Amino acid sequence: MNNSEYIERAEQVLLHTYNRFPVVLEKGRGVWLEDVEGKKYLDFGAGIAVCALGYGDEEYQKALESQISKILHISNLYYSIPLTEAAEKLVKASGMSRVFFTNSGAEAIEGAIKAARKYAYARDGRTGHEIIAMEHSFHGRSIGALSVTGNDHYQEPFRPLMGGVRFARFNDLESVKEQVTENTCAIILETVQGEGGIFPADPGFLKGIKKICEERDILLILDEIQCGMGRTGSWFAWQQYGVEPDIMTCAKALGCGVPVGAFVLNEKTAGASLAPGDHGTTYGGNPLACAAVLAVFDLFEQRGILSHVRETAPYLEQKLDELVKKYDFLKERRGMGLMQGLQVEERPVGEILQNALKNGLIVLSAGENVLRFVPPLIITKDHIDEMIRRLESSF
Ligand SMILES: *Cc1c(COP(=O)(O)O)cnc(C)c1O
Question: Which amino acid positions bind pyridoxal 5'-phosphate, per UniProt (predicted)?
């Protein structure tokens, strides 16, 4: 069967919640994907910032196979070795204190919201606490995560959402201060906004928020689901700002393809928020998911992925900057590490993406007319050159 025959079948049975690109991807090697007709694509999307190790990595696959042959699932009523070892890795990489594994990013956000509310409840014995979130943020599609997602279009049909959420403008500290009340229990933001259009937090903004949080015992929740796990050249983007969150959420590249997320608490929050009976999950942190997390941390360390990102990213930035100089419709480049965006004007990004696909290149969009580049972290300069060639012929 070719692409269109498979697509016709898919459209008979799948709920139409996505306008998918017209390709059926079947396999991958390194940073290349292949569709059912044998056409190859250079991948600068990584399954939305997930496949940091690329595709078909033998050691990663071996680690999964070895876990599959032992046990897949045990529930959270018991301990497992991969669960403990994966949590140890996450604690060490973040310098934080305690981990709760989830199955997705949205669930990590749900857990972070519950931990923040419980922390405030345990302190005052009151309910009705509020959370400050950012405009143009993205935290996921479940009702709680959607409630802190600053996007009217995503929220509108599903109201009423979770109450007690106030929105401030990203990188505008005064607008955050205006939303603080005696009921504020947390401020949540992405260290680098992803879906909203690739906007890194200004250092002064993040430091200012941390100061407000410390002064008023408000918890800082940093969403590192997209920008974490080495994408910006450090394990987590906040480590480059010197601003530590009280709660961090993580997912996407955490499992490099096996669905897994986590929320991680610092000592202060862990000691005074969620307690036995307050939160749970059947699958979260199961042995297969944790074997993937463990393999990801091991392979990142063995291969020096963080320093590879730090070496490669300036080249990507340079090449994208050259495009901005060369083409009037490219307004600016923004980003950190291997999380980059090009602001496009007067041309629909969708058209560029479709042309790119025809030219065997996968790139993503974000926000209002932004081209988003979140490649596997194993890309080389040659891949970047090839991407630029294919992108230019797509303009
Ligand atoms: C993708 C994403 C989420 C949601 O993760 P899911 O696994 O899709 O639920 C939350 N926050 C950020 C910053 C994301 O990029």
Answer: 105-106, 138, 223-226, 282
